[in-house]
Amino acid sequence: MALDWLPRDNVLKDHQLIGDEFFGTKPPCTMYEKKPLVNPQTGETVDGLYTAWITLNNPAQYNSYTTEMVKGVIAGMKKASVDRSVVAIIFTGAGDRAFCTGGNTKEYAEYYTRRPREYRDYINLFSGMVDAILDAGAPVIRRANGMSVAGGQEIGQACDLTIASDLATFGQAGTAVGSTPDGGSTDFLPWQLPTIELAMWNCISNEQWSAYKMYRLGLITDVVPVKKLDGKWIKNPSVITDKYIEDGKIVYGEPKTGEEAKKAREIIKTAETDFSLLDRRVNEIVWTFANLMPLCLMKAIETIRWKKRYFWDTNKISAKYWLAANMNMEAYLGFNTFNTEDMTGQRRIDFIKYRQLIAQGHSFDDELAEQVMPKPKK
To answer: pTM of this prediction?
Structure first.
């Protein structure tokens, strides 16, 4: 070589700040695992290249994230970002019911309500989790193996692409339990749905929209079946998956009702769950990434991410302090009511009574809470 006389340090440097102290295997925890890159056309693995799987492992509580799990997601994103061998990050949930249903309401109710300073510090961590996804050094694919609700929808929207089980549902819950979707949905949904009104309704109504509907509206990249009956793949029987218009309305992806919905629930209970098509589709996306120039790929991804970051960064500071202050008010009512459903049989306050008391100028105090929260069953 003509320039072989130039001094050159060829010892690889370690840029890693993160160890394994934030990961675990026993729920509730965040799991971190590297899996070999797979060629989906041959099924063969590739030496020396991997996907990094970050898994929310709290299936008993629908993979709602605790404080420690949030730390694990941040750590996982940062750990994978500086790993030269990682082609893509796969963000998913344990089990077959949920990707994530947001923050752990038990922890919210029993620790964070009426501790606004503590919740401010928690929201700092949550914001760091969204930031870590948006700043990841590899493409981030949400593998939506089930419900993506509330904060679960928000951290999922921060990901670059979503491949969803056709049993997955998407939506918010905050306005019914004393919070607001300022963890990303108020920022991301206007970008990711076709109209501002669709974004508005999904954000505030707490309706759960099917994966097929979200695919039709462009919120997710792809949707695949995960149920088999008599060895054959079936689409989610609880939603309309034929593309047609009824009474002038697009019904593709809308839920079935009445007797049809009841029959569908029975089919889902008895059918076999199989995530192989979901994983194959994820592998196909990753294989596409693997066969692109890595720096050019990430430049393109980061430039598109910037549009999401702009509104997220604009809103997150004020949201953090408002959410913290609200832990003394409506969040106190909502999270504690949700958390005591097994004692009262109800998960919502008496909204009409609450509005009546507010209209009368009632102070927000324990007397008000006593009147609007459900009572324990005798």
So the answer is: 0.95
